[in-house]
């Protein structure tokens, strides 16, 4: 008599002994992602400027050396004409060299960029740095979103419409990543969806300096915007994994509320 076979547990079963995501590790990741991306971007920009400055100096040195060589050759040819003409040629060469050196030192001064801090001591991002940080964090989130969908929708029916895919984001994916569902979902039924999270987890622990008034609130909203780049990438990557191509924009008018506007390809506002 054969023993009855026990059903094998599915990998998507809600088993506390088989956690899907380390929540604490994810919290630390979301907190450190923005400062890390900013430091990496600033280091890359600094290295790029250093390489450009080194190239400019080497080019100036080569031009000065070529002028010196030409001047010395002309001096040798005109040596029979008298010592006065030779000294005049050498003075011209030294004048070129000194002017080149002055230009090099002036470039060092102009290359330095001023850096500022906010009222809470956070470094202020330039527009170039902010744009690079956006693309870096959005790309990271895109890969994370694709991986999450591949892992956690393996044994679930595939969404057949963009609305079903958005509902999967609001209920399943948001609970998985941020431990709560989206609070509000609106759509115009023409490919535009607006997701509102009234207590977005990455923004819930941000502090605002109330003593500075409106300036402190504006600085806090500016910092909050950078923490929305990664979730935008997660949404875009997750929907791409389900076959829905979208563009995602995020904004925050009051901490810790976050609003995500999703537009499918070919959507009409």
From TrEMBL:
Record field: compositional bias (Polar residues): 60-70
InterPro entries given in the database record: NO_sig/Golgi_transp_ligand-bd, TRAPP_component, TRAPPC6/Trs33
GO BP field: endoplasmic reticulum to Golgi vesicle-mediated transport
Biased composition (Low complexity): 91-103
Pfam families per record: TRAPP
GO CC term (a single one): trans-Golgi network
Compositionally biased region (Pro residues): 1-10
Region (Disordered): 1-20, 55-114
Similarity comment: family membership: Belongs to the TRAPP small subunits family. BET3 subfamily.
Protein name (database record): Trafficking protein particle complex subunit 6B
Lineage of producing organism: Eukaryota, Fungi, Dikarya, Ascomycota, Pezizomycotina
